[in-house]
Amino acid sequence: MTQEFFGFSNDAVSWFVGLEQDNSKEYFHATRGQWESQVLGPLTAMLEALTGEFGGTVRIFRQNRDVRFSRDKSPYKPPPMG
């Protein structure tokens, strides 16, 4: 059971501001706790709430796979078949 969605906090917005300033793996690892509590939790709750209207299954994938310069641009986890 996920939490109810009440919007994103100022802390979530500040996390994204920090990410804009330092879009690195180090930043993400240093602020992982803030990501999980202030961004991922509310994001999951929002998507769960939207499944009632739009259907589907909530899936959130890794956000730090940079494939811009990679020959293999396949996702870590391919979409489900069917």
What does this structure look like?
The protein is mainly alpha-helical. The chain has one domain (1-65, 72-82). 50% of the residues lie in helices and 0% in strands. The chain contains three helices and no strands. The protein has helices at 10-21, 25-30, 32-54. The longest helix is centred in the middle third of the chain and has 23 residues, at 32-54. The relative contact order is 0.15. The mean pLDDT is 84.
- How many domains? 1
**Oligomeric state of the chains present here:** single chain
Amount of beta strand: under 5%
N-C termini distance: 26 Å
Radius of gyration: 15 Å
Q: Give the proportion of residues in helices.
A: 40-55%
Which regions have little confidence, pLDDT < 50, spanning 5+ residues? none
Order of helical and strand elements: HHH
Mean pLDDT: 84
What shape does the CA trace take? flat
| Category by helix and strand content | mainly alpha
Report the total helices. 3
How many strands appear in the DSSP assignment?
A: 0
Biggest β-sheet description: none
